[in-house]
Amino acid sequence: MKTTICTAAQARLADKTAIHEHKIPSLILMEHAALGCTKIIQKHLQPGGQILILCGPGNNGGDGLAIARLLQRPCFVYAPKASSMSNDERIQWDMLEKNEQVHFSSFEETLSLMQNADMVIDALFGNGLSRNIEGNYKTLIDAVNASNAFVISIDINSGLDATTGKILNACIISDLTICLDCIKTGQLINDGKKVCSKLECLSIGIPQTIHASLKTAILLDSEEAKQLLPRRSNDGHKGTFGKALMIGGSYSMHGAITMAARACYQSGIGTLTCFVPDCIHDILAQKMEFAMLKSGEDKNGYFSNTAIEVLTKETGKYDIVTIGNGMGQQESTKELVQKALQLSTCTLFDADACWAIREHPELLRQDFSIILTPHIKEMTYLCHRSLSEILQDPFGTVQEFCASYPNCTLVLKSDITLIGHKDQMYVLHQPNSALAKGGSGDILCGIIAGLYGQCRNAFQAAAIGTYIHSCCAKQKKDPACFMQRPIRK
Ligand SMILES: NC(=O)C1=CN([C@@H]2O[C@H](COP(=O)(O)OP(=O)(O)OC[C@H]3O[C@@H](n4cnc5c(N)ncnc54)[C@H](OP(=O)(O)O)[C@@H]3O)[C@@H](O)[C@H]2O)[C@@H](O)CC1
Ligand SMILES: [K+]
């Protein structure tokens, strides 16, 4: 089952389509949601533990009341007066009329119960939050955050904008958030990262085809990765697995191209050629017994402007060209980037190549595939957004770029990495500080190139390469001393 990532509007549309077009009554969806939540809640609940369920005025509150019914154990519930409930919540309320295990508490009682509660279920607001939280709801949220209870939010932490991840004046900080049907974009960005400790996504019976038709982003998890990993045929030869040319390096940054090349080789490329400045040729010849080496004229430790001449004879020889690792922000980098595009083959722009193309973004529109792997700072060179604008809205940034450059696959690297192509997007949500060190990006570039050689599909290679890269980071218990080596399992 795919886990999807939606904006608030997409999530609402998916609900609406399921209810009105697929004729699945909303109460059935709510029952699925509540049954699934109850199972998860029970796993975290101590026998005899005191549980307090906070319900708001909409269907999120309806989920809370359904959970109270399904728990089948004594619990306290705070709920608004029946006249201000949504229709479905009202039906849930009626179902509790004869229930003797559910005790409704007043606002004041709820505040005092909070002090001894073992668990608080946050069903105040979900996808329908529309303005700042004030008054009693704010007081309740502040009290939850001050309590020692284990807090589970239903669907969305109440107070969090589901799309932007901004807090609307007050917000529940949860130990666990059970996302209904899909993860919301706001849970992965901005304040969303701080208020949701752990996300668990629950299927509630909304048909997967609805998400597919809405073109929602897909979580890149192990299930998805298995589908993407290229299969190597036993009767393949080195040509089958691709010929890569990696252009990069400088006197002070020869490690970057070395790491990228090693990662490419270890990721299964058929043959690998590195093109580096003359001044580091001999160093690399010592380090890279696995790659063929070509070198071009250097100046002050970088490629010279005339180094490009060597590339003129290379047209048609390679399946993938990578450019950028350790090249520096030099005039020659700009020249080489343009020349690399003339090789008319799939080209991966990493690091300084993303900087070098910024004056000629029109060159990114080619009739062959281009992969770009910028981190957030490098992304500022590729779009008209500032660093903070990209951080605020990484999903929109990737969508906008991919719509403008349909032949490009963009890998926007940060604690969550987004991989976009046309209207498709994968989201890798495995933040790990092990990858926050020099060389990580170079290795990712190499892994993607190695995998491209084996599948010849830029979006697939970028997605599976990004996933494998993050798996490498999980190998060590202490992320600070992690040494990166590509793996294949
Ligand atoms: N539909 C489905 O298929 C399923 C939906 N499910 C569940 O429904 C949830 C979405 O339900 P929902 O649309 O009723 O929104 P929800 O957030 O509960 O409340 C909206 C209410 O709050 C009010 N309100 C808003 N902001 C406020 C504020 N700051 N302070 C005070 N009031 C405020 C708002 O008032 P209004 O803006 O209309 O004036 C309205 O009355 C979703 O997250 C999931 O949990 C599941 O059961 C599975 C099936
Ligand atoms: K909630």
Name the ligand types: ligand NPW, potassium ion
How many strands in all?
A: 21
Give start-end ranges of low-pLDDT stretches: none
Q: In percent terms, what proportion of residues is strand?
A: 15-25%
Assign the CATH superfamily of the largest domain: Ribokinase
CATH class of the largest domain: Alpha Beta
Give the termini distance in whole angstroms.
22 Å
Please state the second-level CATH architecture of the largest domain: 3-Layer(aba) Sandwich
| Count of distinct structural domains | 2
Q: Kindly report the oligomeric state of this protein.
A: single chain
Helix segment tally: 18
Largest sheet: 12 strands, mixed
Fraction of residues in helix: 25-40%
Shape: elongated
CATH topology of the largest domain: UDP-N-acetylmuramoyl-L-alanine:D-glutamate ligase
- In angstroms, what is the radius of gyration? 26 Å
What number is the mean pLDDT? 94
Strand order of the largest sheet: 8-1-10-21-20-19-18-17-16-11-12-13
What structural class results from the helix and strand content? alpha/beta
